[in-house]
Every structure is written in structure tokens, then in C-alpha cells.
Amino acid sequence: MNAKLFKTAIFASAVLLAACSSMPASTPTLDQARSDFVAANNNPQVSTYAPLEFKLASDALEQANAAAVKRQSLDKIDQLAYLAKQKIAIAQQVASQKAAEADIADAGRARNRLQLEARTNEANRSRGDADRARMDAQAAQAQASDAQRAALNAEAQTREAQAKAAQLEAQMADLQARKTERGMIITIGDVLFGTGQARLTPDGANAVRKLADVLTQNPTRTLLIEGFTDSTGTAAHNQELSERRAAAVAAALTGMSIARERVAMRGYGQSYPVAGNDSAADRQLNRRVEIVLSNEGATIAPRR
Fold first, then answer.
1. pLDDT band at 83 (very low <50, low <70, confident <90, very high)
2. Fewer Cβ atoms within 10 A, N terminus or C terminus of the chain?
3. Is the pLDDT of residue 264 over 80?
4. What is the pLDDT of residues 143-188, one digit of tens each?
5. What is the DSSP letter of 300?
6. CA dist 265 → 50, 85, 164, 167 (Å)
7. Distance between CA atoms of 23 and 205, rounded to whole angstroms?
8. Distance of alpha carbon 2 from its chain centroid, rounded?
């Protein structure tokens, strides 16, 4: 008998014992708690996302049912039933929240997969255009004068540079980068780190790996890694956490064969928020690492 059927059996037996007593000992609160328990027991989200909370609720209801069977005082039964009712509500709330978070995560992964496919196709088209341009230039060069060869070379280099720039644009778009005067900025959000930690999650490491590929293909560009937190906690703790997260990204890049001298880092703690700190959603936006990829042949300007 699985856990859910076991709990249902316990509940049914308790109700039967209470019903068979010569003087039923129950209260409206206990009746409502039993009804809420049945609803939660029949909700598959509860068993999937809140098994521990439901176990605590089940134990609490068993205590209330036992008090009813023993015909303890109605105040005592009511007290235990109220506690069980609250724990049942907590289990349902936790299950609902975690189910919603799972739906959001699934939708995000599907969107990212479609975006990646589109960017990959665009990059492949750009490489194909560059290859065709190079072959066309080589064929023309065989019959051209020195001056013509020089002009064709320049044109081929321009097309190759354009194709390379288009490929870089596609790769950075896959990383959801945005263009600024300082360079292209990639944001690694709080969900790509362990909660309250400076350790990258597998998804975070995958994003850094894509960035390492960009750096390998663009050896003249450099990076500035900037860490930020929300305003929760002390300023000293936030400063230290922002520095450790920036350092974690830098260490991941150097571990992927990116030269250490190409990577600078800095932590800003709770400075430079991008949203308020009044809600959990806004605070999560503030907990981030921003990676600035330099423009071609330029240094990265300091943050203003």
C-alpha cells in the first residue's frame, strides 16, 4: 500500500471510530480539517511537490482524530483540528507554488531551446556566406591583376569580418546580451548560482562555457566581470558575496583555457540595483553577475 493510500486508510479509520462512538466527539473545525485533508490527498501536486508538508499535516490530523475518538474536551479537539487545518493549507500552498515554479522553468527551457536553434541556424548561414565569398574571391584572383587581387582581398576580408561579426552577434544574442557604450553585457542571474552561494549551477556553467567559446573565437577582446547583490543582509556580507560570485565566473573561464589576463573582476555589493528591493522578484533581479565583453580594439570603460 503506497503512502497516499495508507494515509487515506488512517483517516477513514479515524472517522469510522469517531462515528461509531456512543457520543460523537467532533467540532466544525475538525470536520473542515477532514474535508481539507481529502481534497489535498486527491491533489497530485501535493504528493509531488509537498510530501513532507503533507506528512506533517497528516500526523496533525491523526492527533485530532485520536482526541475525538477518546472524547477529549471540545476545546482540545478544536485546538488540534485547527493546527491540522493550518498544516494542510501550508502543504497545498507549497505544492501550488512549486508547481507554478516548475511550469515557469519548463517554459523557459523550451524558449531557450528555440532561441538557440534560431541562433545556430543564423550562425551557420553566416559561415556559409563567408565560405562562398572566400571561394568566389579565390576564383577571381586567379585571373586578376595585382591591383585587382588587392581589391578582391580587401573585399573578401570585409565580408569575412562581416560574417564573423554576424556570428558574434548570433552567439551573444543566444546569451541574451545587450549592447552598451562599454561593450556587450551578459547578465547571469541569481538562479544560475546556488542559493546564497558563489557556486555556479550546471545551467550557469553552461552559460559561461558559451562565453568561453566567444572569447576563443575573438582573441583580442577582454572581459570585466561585475558582481551585485540585493540589499538584504549587511553591506559587508553583500560585498563579499558579490566578489565571490564574480570570482567564481572568472575561475570557470580560466578553467576553460581563457587567459587570466583577459579577465578582470569587481564586486559592487548592493550598489547599482536594477530594481527595487521591496519584493522577492525585484531582489532576485538585483542578485546578478554582469559580464562586459569589450568592443573590438577598445578597453572597457569604468561603471558610472
1. very high
2. C
3. yes
4. 666 666 666 677 777 676 676 667 777 777 788 899 999 999 999 8
5. P
6. 40, 51, 27, 26
7. 65
8. 33
Amino acid, single-letter form, for residue 92: Q
Residue 145: per-residue pLDDT: 64
Residues paired with 225 in a beta bridge: 265, 291
- Choose among 189, 202, 293: nearest CA to 245: 189
pTM for this entry: 0.49
Quote the crossing angle between the two packed helices 202-217 and 146-174, to the nearest 10°.
170
Please state, in angstroms and rounded to a whole number, the distance separating the CA atoms of residues 104 and 177: 21
Q: Where are the alpha helices (DSSP H) in the chain?
A: 3-20, 28-41, 44-49, 51-69, 74-141, 146-174, 202-217, 235-254, 280-286
Tens-digit pLDDT profile for residues 206-223: 999 999 999 999 999 999
Read off φ and ψ for residue 24, nearest 5 degrees.
-55, 130
Count of beta carbons in the 10 Å neighbourhood of residue 23: 5
Residue 241 confidence (pLDDT) above 50: yes
Q: Is the dihedral of CA 51, 54, 58, 59 positive or negative?
A: positive
> Could you give the 3-state DSSP secondary structure of residue 259?
coil
What's the CA angle centered on 94, arms 89 and 96, to 5 degrees? 95
